[in-house]
């Protein structure tokens, strides 16, 4: 009874959702600004989704794949930008928000603390934030640092959806073990959205589903 499992994999989008995604994403995405303090946030005047994940999880690559802009998220990866919350416009109706990667080993404590304060303030105070996508490397499953951000999202009551990245790097035989680990961890998080998206920026798997998810958020 696969469909009775908690946190099933999202199904492929239906035709309406696909059309909504095509309409939205063909209008294009652009880098707007990097933000280091709450006072720098753009007006909360449109639908907003954010992307969080451990360093190297494939966040920039995924944002590029979603928007079809090869180097879009590179802007947020250049030295000096990595501690900023980066805003991208999508059409004139959405913001895509790239949160700094966490779990970096060598950042000074003061830097990490400053970024955690900003992240907390952003997640708790942003009215227009509809959903957070928490990216998790399919090879590694949910790590303690991922659970920290999930706990923060629980507290802030921001619904979050888990997006597994680099699906092309795991063997089909290892998928059940990964999904069991992820489902077990998510069961403890009240803000977890009850569907997972398995993606690969390499093969394009799951990208349409994620686009359609964003395009049909209300
Ligand atoms: N095989 C495979 N490799 C991927 C995929 N997505 C990203 N990568 C690779 O993983 C590495 C990290 O990807 P990035 O997109 O830079 O990761 P990031 O999360 O933005 O990293 P930070 O900037 O450190 O936060 C790169 O070498 C990518 O080419 C994927 O779906 N499949």
UniProtKB/TrEMBL annotation:
What are the transmembrane regions?
Answer: none
Q: What PROSITE patterns would the database entry show?
A: G_ENGB
What are the alphabetically sorted keywords of the record? Answer: Cell cycle, Cell division, GTP-binding, Magnesium, Metal-binding, Nucleotide-binding, Septation
Gene3D superfamilies documented for this protein: P-loop containing nucleotide triphosphate hydrolases
Signal sequence segment: none
What InterPro entries does the annotation carry? G_ENGB_dom (IPR030393), GTP-bd (IPR006073), GTP-bd_ribosome_bio_YsxC (IPR019987), P-loop_NTPase (IPR027417)
Give me the Gene Ontology terms describing cellular component.
Answer: cytosol
Q: Name one GO molecular function term.
A: GTP binding
Question: Has keyword GTP-binding?
Answer: yes
Name the Gene Ontology biological process terms. division septum assembly
Q: Which residues form the EngB-type G domain?
A: 45-218
Q: Which family, according to the similarity comment?
A: Belongs to the TRAFAC class TrmE-Era-EngA-EngB-Septin-like GTPase superfamily. EngB GTPase family.
NCBIfam families documented for this protein: GTPase_YsxC (TIGR03598)
The record's listing under HAMAP family reads: GTPase_EngB
Give a short account of what the protein does: Necessary for normal cell division and for the maintenance of normal septation.
Protein name (Swiss-Prot/TrEMBL) = Probable GTP-binding protein EngB
Task: Tell me which species this is from.
Answer: Pseudaestuariivita atlantica
């Amino acid at each position: 009874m696969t469909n009775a499992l908690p946190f099933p994999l999202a199904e492929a989008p239906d035709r309406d959702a696909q059309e909504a995604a095509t309409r939205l994403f063909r209008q294009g995405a652009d880098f707007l600004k990097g933000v280091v303090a709450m006072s720098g946030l753009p007006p909360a005047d449109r639908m907003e989704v954010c992307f969080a994940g451990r360093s190297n999880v494939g966040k920039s690559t995924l944002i590029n794949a979603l928007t079809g802009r090869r180097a879009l998220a590179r802007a947020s990866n250049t030295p000096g930008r990595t501690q900023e919350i980066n805003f991208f416009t999508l059409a004139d109706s959405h913001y895509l928000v790239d949160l700094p990667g966490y779990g970096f080993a060598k950042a000074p404590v003061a830097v990490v603390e400053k970024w955690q304060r900003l992240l907390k303030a952003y997640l708790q105070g942003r009215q227009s934030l509809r959903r957070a996508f928490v990216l998790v490397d399919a090879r590694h499953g949910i790590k303690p640092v991922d659970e920290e951000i999930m706990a923060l999202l629980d507290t802030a009551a921001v619904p979050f959806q888990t997006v597994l990245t680099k699906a092309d790097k795991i063997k089909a035989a290892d998928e059940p073990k990964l999904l069991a680990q992820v489902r077990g961890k998510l069961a403890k998080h009240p803000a977890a959205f009850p569907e997972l998206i398995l993606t690969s920026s390499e093969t394009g798997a799951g990208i349409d589903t994620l686009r359609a998810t964003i395009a049909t958020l209300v």
